[in-house]
Amino acid sequence: MDQRSTPMQATREKIEQGLLAKFGEAYEKAAEQAQSIADPARRELGAARIALEHAVLQTALEKDLPTKSVAAMLDKASPQQVAHFIREGRKSVQRTYGVDAGAMVAALSAQVANVDLPRGMAQTESMRQLVEQGRGLVGQAVGELYQTRGQFDHGGPRTDFVTSRTPEGALSATEQLKNHMVFIESAVDYAVRSGKMDATQGQMLKDRIEHQVFTTPADAKFSPQFKSFHDKVGQRLKGEVMTEARKVTNNKTVAEIAERLHEARDRVQKMRASLDRG
User: Fold this and answer.
1) Partners of 78 in beta bridges
2) Which residues pair with 153 in a beta bridge?
3) Please, which contacts does 248-252 make with residues 24 or more away whose CB atoms are closer than 8 Å?
4) Are residues 81 and 135 part of one domain?
5) What global pTM score does this model have?
6) N or C terminus: fewer CB in 10 A for the chain?
7) Which of 129, 105, 71 is CA-nearest to residue 178?
8) Structural domains in the chain (count)
């Protein structure tokens, strides 16, 4: 699977990096500082930005300070302190909204990405790219799990409980896959809400994409043993990933923010049309 960035993926990443980032000069400087250190919290800049903004607002609320004053503190913070702020922000987003910051970014970016989705059985280039990227993540997670099949981790010195070993690579790929499916589901939801397709068409498209992403490709040149493993684990991943993804896409707060983004875009389009007429 070619994992190089596709136009659809590049567009999404650009949107995610800029989404909700109009936070002022101090905020941007802090984000740049966070990138300068090797810390997991800064790997997804879009999610980090939401988390940092949320942390600033939460701190201001808790300490009864103006948000500008709290943001100004970031100017004097070390990269390590900024990274800590981002980590705490991500936790706060999770506690407050029940949604991981990275998943929230994925859901919101789909509202402004203008994904070209098919209305019938046709295949658009955007959809092809999204399906291929999803398949690649499924393949990555399944491949990692296949390498550690039959290996177990002991629960600890005071218990005989053991669990199947899950490698870090599989966990990372599964998390990326969840956010990828959040993006796809949100893009379809936006298409339905904006009148580009009806609810029945939207659900049929979701089902079709899920099937293509999680079902072992018919032309895959796998050994019989690996194909059997891929079939089984792929369907298990589908259940786990889609359950988590729909917790995000059905989240009330995410839906409300998405609606505000939708309304804001409508206002901009109307203003432009009015100017063009004038």
Assistant:
1) none
2) 163
3) 248/99, 248/100, 248/103, 248/104, 248/106, 248/107, 248/182, 249/107, 249/182, 249/185, 249/186, 249/189, 251/97, 251/98, 251/99, 251/107
4) no
5) 0.72
6) C
7) 105
8) 2
Q: Residue 162: beta bridge partners?
A: 154
Final residue before a domain boundary, out of 77, 97, 117 = 97
The first and second tokens of residue 164, run together, are: 């199947």
Sole residue written with tokens 């043993």: 225
Whether residue 148 sits in one domain with residue 32 = no
211 conformational bin, left if phi > 0, alpha if psi -120 to 50, beta if neither: alpha
Number of neighbouring beta carbons within 10 Å of residue 128: 13
Q: Among 32, 45, 21, which residue's Cα sits nearest to residue 79?
A: 32
Does residue 263 share a domain with residue 148?
yes
Tens digit of each residue's pLDDT (9 = 90 or more) over 243-254:
999 999 998 878
**Model confidence pLDDT, tens digit, residues 12-63:** 666 655 544 433 343 344 445 444 444 444 445 666 667 777 777 777 777 7
Which residue's structure tokens are 């970016």?
109
- Do residues 85 and 134 both lie within one domain? no
167 lies in the same domain as 51 = no
The single residue listed with the structure tokens 């991500």 is: 90
3-state secondary structure of 111: coil
Question: Nearest-CA neighbor of 110 among 52, 45, 210, 189?
Answer: 189
Rounded Cα gap, residues 274 and 242, in angstroms: 42
The distance in angstroms from the start CA to the end CA of the chain is 51
Q: Interior CA angle at 46 toward 45 and 51, to 5°?
A: 90
**DSSP strands (E only) in 85-214:** 152-154, 162-164
